Write a sequence for this structure.
């Protein structure tokens, strides 16, 4: 009995081998068809052809498999074949690791982002006054932090909320950053302001609400300075990466991606920090990946564990909002750290053993 079973199984092994060979032979033919379709510019998926094959197969089917089962099996074969054709001709993005295996390392006033060291970017949500900027700049300088953020153009949920100081805010940011030897990052919201930004700031931020503002992305692609692209509040990683591609394809490949939380049903945080975005973006692209712990959480009390998680997940840096007197801040008052809280966070990060300097 056992011997008979053994014999039958040996026979099945042989048939499996034959099927495997045939399936792969079929796959080679499918690939050749894919080449022709690609040259002719016709779609790879051909439902009419698939239906004709299924009809022919079922009309010839001697059993014992029922027609429904034969259809099911062959549909799977067609699906795998189509995948093969699409995979062969998939458009590779400039920002993808397949095109460039090595990390893009961005030099911002001699601070390298995306290399072996991780960076901290900090500063107020909005530029409000010289006094405010100087307090933060002095604290950053003391802490050895080289890049200061500060918003001058603020796309706010309500048109009645503080909209930022605009170009004057950029001027103030530059003046104070120069005094303290810091590099700056600020959001730009209008394509016409990109050239102006180059005069005042070191990194252009494109905000979450503008992640798919394609004209702005194209304009940033013409800029000579790096771009920090924030993930949209409801953007998939696929959309995020394609938004970065809009910038890269125009010639500016100095693009950094920043996860800033996505919208979910959770209310205990302002947004939900998608930590899996970090390793996925690092895997799929060669761009530096950062995490904005302030906007993703909207809170002050869980920044250290979130920053540690980001660094452990392979982020190239962390961004946080700091204000000398958060209660009076003109935007994002609830989430900005005061200077002692910031210093405590920074100590915690540096002593965690996770921050590579
Ligand atoms: C094939 C693959 C995908 C199409 O949807 C239809 C058929 C197949 O696997 O048989 C081959 C093919 O591309 C074709 O015959 O045009
Ligand atoms: Mn803010």
């Amino acid at each position: 009995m056992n011997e008979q079973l053994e014999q039958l199984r040996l026979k099945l092994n042989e048939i499996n081998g034959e099927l495997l060979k045939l399936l792969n032979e079929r796959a080679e033919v499918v690939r050749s068809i894919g080449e022709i379709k690609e040259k002719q510019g016709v779609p790879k998926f051909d439902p009419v052809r698939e239906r004709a094959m299924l009809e022919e197969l079922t009309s010839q089917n001697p059993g014992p498999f029922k027609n429904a089962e034969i259809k099911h099996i062959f549909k799977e074969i067609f699906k795998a074949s189509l995948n093969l054709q699409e995979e062969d001709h998939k458009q590779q993005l400039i920002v993808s690791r397949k095109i460039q295996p090595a990390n893009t390392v961005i030099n911002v006033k001699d601070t390298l982002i995306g290399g072996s060291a991780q960076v901290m970017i900090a500063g107020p949500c909005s530029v409000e006054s010289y006094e405010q900027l100087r307090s933060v700049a002095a604290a950053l300088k003391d802490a050895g932090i080289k890049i200061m953020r500060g918003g001058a153009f603020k796309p706010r949920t309500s048109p009645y909320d503080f909209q930022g100081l605009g170009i004057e805010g950029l001027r103030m940011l530059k003046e104070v950053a120069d005094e303290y030897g810091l590099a700056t990052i600020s959001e730009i919201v209008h394509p016409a302001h990109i050239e102006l930004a180059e005069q005042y700031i070191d990194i252009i931020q494109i905000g979450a609400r503008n992640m798919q503002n394609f004209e702005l992305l194209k304009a940033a692609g013409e800029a000579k300075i790096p771009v920090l692209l924030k993930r949209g509040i409801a953007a998939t990683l696929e959309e995020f990466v394609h938004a970065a591609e809009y910038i890269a394809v125009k010639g500016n490949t100095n693009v950094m991606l920043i996860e800033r939380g996505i919208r979910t049903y959770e209310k205990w945080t302002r947004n939900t920090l998608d930590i899996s975005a970090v390793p996925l973006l690092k895997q799929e692209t060669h761009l530096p990946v950062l995490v904005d712990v302030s906007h993703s959480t909207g809170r002050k009390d869980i920044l250290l564990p979130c920053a540690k998680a980001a660094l452990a997940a392979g982020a190239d840096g962390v961004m946080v909002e700091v204000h000398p007197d958060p209660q009076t801040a003109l935007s994002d008052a609830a989430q900005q750290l005061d200077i002692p809280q910031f210093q405590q966070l920074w100590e915690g990060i540096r002593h965690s053993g996770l921050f590579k300097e």
About this structure: The radius of gyration is 27 Å. The chain has a mean pLDDT of 97. Residues 125, 295, 321, 331-332 surround manganese (II) ion (ligand 2) (CB under 6 Å).
